[in-house]
């Protein structure tokens, strides 16, 4: 029987941020990756599973030339934000090759879809549209593809077909996560916690001495 | 109050104190509570909305071990505050976050007591960080007794006497909290849920409510213990003394990174404070009653600071200087000629900057806001913020460099080089993830440094940008050099938020983190700062605040700089 542990959204994001930091993800990108993991989990898109699966694919620097990024096998949790930012300043499609878990790029796209800007993401036979107050996904097998195409524009967003998850459903999932919490598989959560612990510095007498109140506090 | 007809936002902006003046460690480390501090705004909200607080269940043994459960009725529905009192050996009592047992543990829950699983909480809440909490629990905290005072008060009450007010004033509280957790920690409800279900949309209001309720718990606990010990001889604590009992708090480094990691919130908090000050300074000619109230407040402050207990040498010197300074201010305002010219409060603030000690300057900021609730209380609603920081990917590096030169010139001017400019590193300890400060060139762990050294990081970025073509855009730059993502985004996001940064080197040899703590604690509404080192401080919250059955009294909001009752008044 699968045992789950209820977790808050902010707690998951905090754990994910530390795990990303411990994995060597650049400062700032760790926050974006953690946001993406928590966003995907809260919207029923398996963010925690993606993060744990990709723990060995978080640290590194992608390469970029013209309209292409070679992710070098890195996860979309960390390459996604870099690629979305680049798509925002380009007027043509951006191709991201050799990327892992491309569906995770959607989270950051949704965050940046403001002020009339939209993003269309295509990977394998899946597709998603992120527009202000209008996110929809046509999703079949999100984990297999290794290439992601991002287009970005302003004004009326394109139409995507065969929508399997619409914005109403996504919002319903988010509100449920907010009200009831996230139920994480215990083993997966523990893997994440172990990864997160690597940002901690072992305690020592010298470190204890200046950190706070005296040990005996019976005055 | 005669307000100049010319007052508008532009006028206010023209008189705001400059960020380079305000956002220095030594100044923010001299802040005091204001009427828009969170403790104050919470009490006003409770009063305005008619919140009702009732003891739902009291199950305590002779020694005060057990629980008290409170029901809090708000317009958006009931809350439950559960306090659990536990035995604690003296050897286990420590203020440190790393402690594992406490005299009392608390939780605040959504819903009435009947829907809260109190028996389960009684097992889980004392575990604190080691426990897991339900989606309807919103705040978790714990507190230790101020042992000597606690016992002394019980003995007095048990023998039929009120406790010695002078002895109480030396401490000011019966218990002090050592951590107050919210916002999703350990499974607690997310902050957004609080806004949806109970209108807790302002930061830290739920936590402040928990602290306020802890105060009530300590009062009820002490009355119970005295009754048990003294039987029919025992008396309950007199109301004037109850009101002057606050809740203590020991705050260490854990609070400091928060302000660095939430710069938009910090900006909004300081903007609210500075805007309030500016509005008051723009008053052309205060009404006579306002002048009388201001003078009375200054007199009250002069007594209040004599009741400010601290063992810290520098704080004692500061208190002494404040006393002398306030006497000067009293004399100044006693001369009616001061009010012959317009904008007397503006002139007072300007005069103070040239003539008074820093702590008094900031105390005056708090004092002159106090009579003007109608003018400034609306600013409390500006104290929240979304916390997203976003890059501007299209910005060219040449423009980014210019942005740094214009908005982070202060950072470029600081020396962040070894060995003094980067002497310290901030890190999370394996012990409960407690943030700590280490000496970079002495202690291990610098490779796991938390990104607190903003000035150093800005300087490094600026140096890197100097090597690159100005026409490269931010998005391309961050693909090649992702290690700069956080600082680039911070600079771009905060470019129009002038009070978002503490304009000092937070890893340099001159950094005293206690100043950061005091800034945040004053915004919470803390008083009577009692620094124990440059790394931690004790404070008092809710001292003088109205009791639950006094919330709607006419003077309920008048608890700035409270003073202890004279013996004859008890």
Poorly predicted ranges of chain A: none
Oligomer: heterodimer
Could you give the order of the helices and strands of chain A? EHHHEEHEHEEEEHEHEH
Q: Please state roughly what percent of the residues of chain A sit in beta strands, choosing from under 5%, 5-15%, 15-25%, 25-35%, 35-45% or over 45%.
A: 15-25%
Structural class of chain A: alpha+beta
- Nearest-angstrom radius of gyration of chain A? 19 Å
Largest interface, with Cβ-Cβ < 8 Å?
A: A-B, 49 and 70 residues
Biggest sheet descriptor of chain A: 7 strands, mixed
Task: Explain what you see.
- The complex is a heterodimer of chains A (about 220) and B (about 575).
- In chain A, helix 1 (about 10-20) packs across helix 7 (about 185-195).
- Chain A has one domain.
- In chain A, strand 3, helix 4 (about 75-90) and strand 4 (about 95) form a beta-alpha-beta unit.
- In chain A, the strands form two sheets. A seven-stranded mixed β-sheet of chain A has the order 2-3-4-8-5-6-7, covered by helices on one side.
- Chain A has helices spanning about 10-20, 30-40, 45-55, 75-90, 105-110, 165-180, 185-195, 205-210; strands spanning about 5, 65, 70, 95, 115-125, 125-130, 135-140, 150-155, 180-185, 200.
- Chain A is of the alpha+beta class and about 220 residues long.
- In chain B, helix 6 (about 145-160) crosses helix 9, helix 13 runs antiparallel to helix 14 (about 315-335) and helix 15 runs antiparallel to helix 16 (about 360-370).
- Chain B folds into three domains: about 1-30 and about 265-385, no CATH class; about 40-250, no CATH class; about 395-495, no CATH class.
- Chain B is globular, with a radius of gyration of 25 Å.
- In chain B, the strands form three sheets. Chain B has a nine-stranded mixed β-sheet with strand order 2-3-4-5-6-7-8-13-12, with helices on both faces. In chain B, strands 1-9 form a two-stranded antiparallel ribbon.
- In chain B, a hairpin with a 5-residue loop joins strand 12 and strand 13.
- Chain B contains 23 helices and 13 strands.
- Chain B has about 575 residues and is α+β, with helices and mostly antiparallel strands.
- The two termini of chain B are about 35 Å apart.
- Chain B has helices at about 10-15, 20, 25-30, 40-50, 120-125, 145-160, 165-170, 190-200, 205-230, 240-245, 255-260, 265-280, 290-305, 315-335, 345-355, 360-370, 375, 395-405, 410, 455-465, 475-480, 485-495, 515-525; strands at about 1-5, 50-60, 65-75, 75-85, 105-110, 135-145, 175-180, 245-250, 285, 425-430, 435-440, 525-530, 535-540.
- The chains are: A alpha+beta (about 220), B alpha+beta (about 575).
- The interface between A and B is large, with 49 and 70 residues.
């Amino acid at each position: 029987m699968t045992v789950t542990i209820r977790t808050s959204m902010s707690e998951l994001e905090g754990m994910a941020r530390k795990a990303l930091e411990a994995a060597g993800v650049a400062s700032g990108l760790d926050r974006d990756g953690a946001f993406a993991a928590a966003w995907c989990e809260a919207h029923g898109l398996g963010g925690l599973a993606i993060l744990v699966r990709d723990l060995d694919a978080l640290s590194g620097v992608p390469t970029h030339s013209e309209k292409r990024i070679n992710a070098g096998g890195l996860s979309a949790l960390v390459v996604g934000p870099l690629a979305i930012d680049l798509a925002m300043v380009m007027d043509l499609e951006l191709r991201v090759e050799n990327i892992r878990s491309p569906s995770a790029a959607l989270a950051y796209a949704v965050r940046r879809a403001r002020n009339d800007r939209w993003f269309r993401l295509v990977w394998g036979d899946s597709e998603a549209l992120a527009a202000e107050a209008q996110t929809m996904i046509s999703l079949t097998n999100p984990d297999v593809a290794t290439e992601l195409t991002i287009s970005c524009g302003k004004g009326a967003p394109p139409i995507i077909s065969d929508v399997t998850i619409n914005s109403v459903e996504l919002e319903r999932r988010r509100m449920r996560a907010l009200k009831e919490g996230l139920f994480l598989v215990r083993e997966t959560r523990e893997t994440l916690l172990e990864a997160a612990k690597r940002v901690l510095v072992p305690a020592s007498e010298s470190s204890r001495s200046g950190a706070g109140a005296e040990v005996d506090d019976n005055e | 109050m005669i307000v100049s007809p010319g007052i508008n936002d532009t006028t206010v902006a023209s008189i705001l104190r400059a960020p380079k003046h305000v956002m220095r460690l030594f100044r923010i480390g001299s802040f005091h509570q204001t009427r828009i501090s969170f403790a104050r705004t919470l009490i006003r909200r409770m009063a305005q909305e008619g919140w009702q607080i009732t003891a739902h269940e009291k199950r305590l043994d002779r020694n005060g071990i057990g629980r008290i459960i409170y029901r809090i009725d708000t317009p958006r529905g009931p809350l439950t505050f559960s306090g659990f009192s536990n035995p604690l050996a003296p050897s286990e009592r420590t203020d440190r976050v790393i402690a594992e047992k406490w005299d009392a543990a608390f939780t605040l829950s959504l819903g009435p007591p009947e829907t809260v699983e109190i028996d389960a909480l009684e097992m889980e809440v004392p575990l604190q960080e080691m426990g897991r909490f339900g989606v309807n629990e919103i705040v978790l905290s714990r507190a230790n007794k101020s042992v000597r005072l606690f016992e002394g008060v019980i003995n007095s009450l048990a023998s039929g006497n009120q406790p010695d007010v002078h002895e109480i004033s030396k401490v000011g509280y019966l218990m002090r909290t050592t951590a107050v957790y919210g916002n999703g920690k350990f499974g607690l409800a997310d902050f957004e849920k609080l806004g949806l279900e109970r209108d807790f949309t302002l930061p830290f209001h739920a936590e402040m409510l928990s602290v306020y309720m802890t105060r009530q718990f300590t009062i009820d606990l002490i009355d119970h213990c005295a009754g048990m010990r003294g039987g029919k001889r025992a008396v309950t604590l007199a109301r004037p003394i109850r009101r002057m009992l606050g809740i203590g708090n020991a705050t260490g480094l854990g609070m400091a990174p928060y302000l660095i990691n939430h710069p938009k919130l910090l900006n909004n908090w300081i903007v609210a404070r500075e805007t309030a000050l500016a509005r008051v300074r723009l008053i052309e000619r205060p009404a006579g009653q306002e002048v009388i109230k201001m003078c009375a407040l200054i007199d009250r402050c002069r007594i209040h600071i004599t009741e400010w207990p601290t063992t810290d040498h520098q704080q004692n010197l500061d208190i002494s200087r404040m006393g002398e300074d306030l006497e000067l201010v009293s004399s100044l305002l006693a001369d009616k000629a001061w009010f012959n010219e317009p904008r007397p409060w503006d002139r007072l603030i300007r005069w103070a900057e040239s003539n008074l000690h820093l702590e008094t300057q900031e105390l005056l900021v708090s004092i002159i806001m106090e009579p003007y609730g109608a003018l400034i209380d609306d600013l409390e609603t500006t104290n929240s913020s979304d916390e997203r920081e976003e890059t501007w990917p299209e910005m060219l590096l040449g423009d980014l460099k210019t942005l740094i030169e214009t908005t982070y010139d202060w950072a470029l001017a600081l020396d962040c080089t070894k060995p003094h400019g980067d002497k310290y590193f901030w890190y999370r300890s394996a012990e409960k993830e407690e943030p700590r400060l280490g000496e970079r060139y002495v202690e291990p762990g610098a490779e796991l440094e938390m990104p607190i050294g903003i000035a150093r990081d800005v300087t490094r970025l600026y140096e890197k940008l100097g090597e690159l073509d100005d026409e490269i855009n931010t998005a391309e730059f961050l693909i090649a050099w992702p290690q700069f993502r956080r600082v680039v985004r911070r600079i771009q996001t905060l470019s129009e938020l002038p009070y978002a940064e503490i304009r000092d080197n937070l890893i340099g040899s001159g950094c005293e983190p206690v100043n950061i703590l005091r800034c945040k604690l004053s915004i919470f509404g803390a008083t009577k700062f009692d620094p124990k080192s440059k790394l931690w401080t004790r404070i008092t919250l809710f001292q003088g605040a109205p009791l639950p059955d006094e919330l709607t009294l006419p003077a309920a909001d008048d608890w700035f700089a409270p003073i202890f009752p004279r013996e004859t008044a008890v």
